[in-house]
Predict the structure.
Amino acid sequence: MSFDARASGVFVIAATPFHPDGRIDEASIDRLTDFYLACGANGLTALGVMGEAPKLAHDESIALVRRMVRRAGKVPVVVGVTSPGFAPMRALARGVMEAGAAGVMIAPPNTLRTDDQIVAYFGQAREAIGDDVPFAVQDYPLGFSVVMTPQVLARIVTENPSCVMLKLEDWPGLEKISAVRALEQAGRVRQVSILTGNGGIFLDFELERGANGAMTGYAFPDMLTELVRLSAAGERERAHDLFDAHLPLMRYEQQPGVGLAVRKLVLTKRGVLASDAQRSPATALSPAGRAEVDYLLRRLARLDSRANLG
Amino acid sequence: MSFDARASGVFVIAATPFHPDGRIDEASIDRLTDFYLACGANGLTALGVMGEAPKLAHDESIALVRRMVRRAGKVPVVVGVTSPGFAPMRALARGVMEAGAAGVMIAPPNTLRTDDQIVAYFGQAREAIGDDVPFAVQDYPLGFSVVMTPQVLARIVTENPSCVMLKLEDWPGLEKISAVRALEQAGRVRQVSILTGNGGIFLDFELERGANGAMTGYAFPDMLTELVRLSAAGERERAHDLFDAHLPLMRYEQQPGVGLAVRKLVLTKRGVLASDAQRSPATALSPAGRAEVDYLLRRLARLDSRANLG
Amino acid sequence: MSFDARASGVFVIAATPFHPDGRIDEASIDRLTDFYLACGANGLTALGVMGEAPKLAHDESIALVRRMVRRAGKVPVVVGVTSPGFAPMRALARGVMEAGAAGVMIAPPNTLRTDDQIVAYFGQAREAIGDDVPFAVQDYPLGFSVVMTPQVLARIVTENPSCVMLKLEDWPGLEKISAVRALEQAGRVRQVSILTGNGGIFLDFELERGANGAMTGYAFPDMLTELVRLSAAGERERAHDLFDAHLPLMRYEQQPGVGLAVRKLVLTKRGVLASDAQRSPATALSPAGRAEVDYLLRRLARLDSRANLG
Amino acid sequence: MSFDARASGVFVIAATPFHPDGRIDEASIDRLTDFYLACGANGLTALGVMGEAPKLAHDESIALVRRMVRRAGKVPVVVGVTSPGFAPMRALARGVMEAGAAGVMIAPPNTLRTDDQIVAYFGQAREAIGDDVPFAVQDYPLGFSVVMTPQVLARIVTENPSCVMLKLEDWPGLEKISAVRALEQAGRVRQVSILTGNGGIFLDFELERGANGAMTGYAFPDMLTELVRLSAAGERERAHDLFDAHLPLMRYEQQPGVGLAVRKLVLTKRGVLASDAQRSPATALSPAGRAEVDYLLRRLARLDSRANLG
C-alpha cells in the first residue's frame, strides 16, 4: 500500500500517547504502531484531529512522526498539517516529509464560505507545502463549518495534481460518496482515493457506496479492517453483523470532546497504551462515563470473540 | 400524564403528513395520532424541527394542532413555537393554546452568544407567550449553535416558573443530564422534567443518567416506550438488547437533511402515513438510500419481532 | 420611480413608530412617510432589519404597509419578507402586495453555505412568493453570515426574472459593485438596480463605482438624496464635503444593536417621530450615548446648514 | 511607558514589511520602527491580526521581534501569540520574551461559546505561556465570533494576575468601556489598561468613555497620538476636528480584507515602507481602490497640514 490515488483499506488515526505528567510516551508510540499494524492497518495518520496535534510543539510533532515512520516500515504514515497560516503549514509539511511521512492531510479553516474561496485555499495550501507532497483533503463540515459540494471537491482534485485522497466525513455523507464517484465515472474528474471518517459510524454503507476504506481511530481497528475485507468479499450480512455489534461503542466513542478519552481508555484496557492520559487541556471521562464504557465493552466481548480485552 | 415538571415517558415528535401535491393530509393526522397512542406515547410534540413547521402557514399550524389535540384526547400535545420574532411566537403560542395544546417548546435563535443573552432571551420569550403557558426549553447546540451550560439552564428554570421541561439534546449530553440532576439534588434549582432527543441514539444511557424519557420522532415509537419501560423496571440487559437492535436504523434516520425522508418512508411502510411526501423544499432520499432503509428494516425485522412491517 | 430593474435614488428604510406603551403609532407613520417624501425619497422600504419587523404580528405588518402605501402615493413601498420558512414568507408577501406594496426584499437564512444552496434558496423563495412579485436580494454577509460572490448574484438574477434589485451591503462592497457591473457589461447577466446599505458609510464611493443609489435608513435622508444628486451631477468635491460632514454621525448610527435607538432618537429630535420608543425587546441608549448623539448633532448643525433640528 | 496595567497612549499595530518577492524587508522594519517612535508611539504591537502573522514561520517571527525590540529601545513591544494550540502559543510566547518583548496579546479561538469556556481558555493560555509573561486580552467579536461580557472580562482579569490590558474592539464598544470602568470603580475588579482597536473609528468617544488609548495600526499614528493628547488635555472640539478630518480614510482602511493593502499603500506613500507588498496569499487593491485612496489622501492633505505626504 502506498499513499496515492489508489490507496484503500484502513488508515488508522493514531492516538498520541502521553505519560500522566504530560510528556510524550515514546514506548507507547512503538507499541501502538505495532498494534495498528497487527490489526491490519493499511496506513497510519498522525496528528489528526484526535491526535491532540495542537498540544504538540513543532519539534515534538516531527519527532513523533519520525519514530512512527521508522516503526511502521512499509506502511505509509500520513500527517495532519492543518494550520491557521501557510507558513507553519509549510514548515510542518516539509519537516514531516523529511522525517519520512508519505504525505499530509489538510482541512480548511472555518472562515471559508464561498466555493471559490475553498478552491483557492487548497491551491494556496498546495503551493505552500510544495507540488511534490501528496495530500488528502479533509471534508468534515460538522467540525470545520465549511461545506464542500462534490463539484468543489472535483475542482480541488483537478487543479491540484498532488491531491490524491478525499477524506469524506460530511454528515450525512453517503450521497456525497455516490456523487463524487458519479463525477469520476462521467470523466469529469480523475479518480482519487476516498476514505471515510466520522468515527466509522456509517462505514457499513460507505463501503457499499464506493468508499475505498476508512480513516478513523476507533479503538478496534481490527474490526475496521475485517469489515473492509468482508465488504470487499461481498459478505454483506456478515459485514453488517460485525458492524452492528460494534455500533453501540462506536457511537459512544464518537461523542465530541469526551470521545478521545473513551478511545484512549479502551486502548489502555486493550494493553496498547500505558496510560490514557491526555495532555492538558483535556476533557476527562467521569466515573459514570468510565462505567458506561466498561459496560459496552462487556457487551461487545460477549458478541465479538475478537474483542480480546486483557 | 400531563405536560408539567413531572412529565415522563415518550413525547413523540409528530411528523406532519402531506399529500403528494403538498396539501396537509388530515386523515393521516388522525391515523398518525392513533398510531402514536397505540405505541404508548405519553405525549405528542407537533411542529418540532422534524415537523416541517416553517413550511406551514399560521392557520395551517393552528388547524393541525386542533385536529391532533382532539384525536389525542387526554394525551398532552406540546407545540414548537420557535420563531425569529416574539410577535409571531406569541401569535402561534396563543393560537395553539386556544386550540387545546398543553404547552409549547422554544429553541433559542442562533445569534445568541453569552450566558446572559441566553437567559434574557427565555425571559423575553416567556413574557411574549404569557406566564400561563407552560414551556419546554430545547437545548440542541448542534442544530442551533447555542451552547447552554447546566448553570444557564438552571437560571432559566429559576427565573421562569412556567418552564416545566428541558429537552436536552446536546451532543454529547450524558454529563449534562447528570449535572442538571446534581444541581437539583443540591437544591440549587427546582426539579423539572428532562426528556432527550438526538433521534434517540443515546437514549439507552440517558435514561440511566436520570432522564425522564425521550422526545424524539424515531419511526418506531413502540420501541422507545418499551425501552423506557424496561429501563425503569431495571431490566438493563433487555433494554440494551432492544436498543442495540434498533441503533443501526436510528443512526441512519438521524442524518441531517435526509433523516426526515427516512422517517416518513418508514412510517409509510408501516402503514401509518398514506404518503412519505414532504412539502417543498425537501431533501429526497435517493434510490440507493431507499434500498439501504429497506435493508435495515429487513435486518431489524429479523431481530425484533415487534417490528411488524406491513 | 417604480420598483424595477431601473430603480435608482434613495429608498429609505422606514423606521416603525411605536408609542411608549408598545402600540404602533399610526399618526407617526403618516408624518414619517411625509418626511421621507419631503426629503426626496425615491422609494420606501418597510419592515427591513431596522424596521423591528420580527416584533410585529402578521396583521400589524399588513396594516402598517397599507397605511404607508396610501400615504406614499406614487412612491413605491418595498417590504422585507425575510422569514425562516417559505409559508410565512409567502403569506406576508401576498398580504403586502394586496395592500399595495411595489415588491419585496429577501435575505438568505444564515444556515446557507455553498453557492448552489444560495442559488437554490432564492429560486424556492421566488416560487413561494409567486413569479409576479418583483423582489430585491439583500446581500449583507456581516449580518447574515452568508457570502454571495458576484457570480452567485448573477445566477440568482438570471434564474429569477422577477429579481429586479440587489441591495449590496457586503463589507467591503466596493469591488463587488464593480464586479457585478462588469458582468453586466460583458453580457453575462441582465442589468438590475443596485442600491447599497451599511448605513451609508461607503455611499460616497459606492455611487462612483456604479451603484444606482442607497437603501438605508440614516436619519438624514435629505442628505442621502442630495448626495446622490451631487454625485450624479459630477460634483465630486461637493458630494464628498457633504458626505464627510455626516460621516461621524452615520458611523455612530451604524453601531449594531444601539444603532436603531440612535436613529429613532434623531428622528424624534427632528420632529418626525412622536417618541423614540422601540417595542420590547430593545437595546436602549445610555445617558452617555444620548449625550454623544447630541454632541454629534451640534457639530453637524454647524457644518451643514441643511440639518434643521427643531 | 511600560506594558503593565497603567499603560496608556498609542500602541501601534506594526505592519510587517516584505520585499516584492516575499522576503521580510529588514531595513523597512527599522525605518518603520523609527517612524512609529517619531509619531509618538507609546508602544508597538508586532504580529497582530494586521501583521500577517500566520504567514510567518516561527523563526521569522522571532527574528522580526528581536529586530524591532532592539530598534525600539525603551518603547515596549507587545507580540500577538494567538494560536490554535497551546504548544505553539507557548513556543512563540517564550521565544519572543527571550527576544526582548514586553508581553503578549491573546485572542480567543472562534470555537468558544459559553462564559465558562472563555474564562477557562484564558486560564489555560496563561498556564501555557507562564505566569511571568504579562498579557493583553483581545476582545474582537466581529473578527473572532466570541462575545465576552464585562463580567467575563472581569473574571479573566481577576483569575490571571498577569493580565494587564484589555484590547477592547467590540462593535459597538462604547458601553463596554463604561461597564468595565464601572466594575473597577465598584471594586469588583482590579484596574487594567484599556486600549481600543477597530481601526480607530470610534476613538474620539472611546477616550471620553475611559479608554487609556488605542492599539491600532492606522497609517497616521501621528494623528492618533495627537488625538490622545488633545483628548487628555480636555480640548474636545480640537480633538473631534482632527478625528473627523481623518475619519473618511480611517473608515476606508477599516475594510476587512483590503484594509491591510490600504494601510501598506499609505505607509509606502509616506516613505516609510519600501514596498506595499504583502506575502501571499493577499487581497490586492484594485486600480479603482488605489485611486480612491489617492483621492482621500488629497482631501486629507488639504484638511490636515500635519499629513505630510512625501
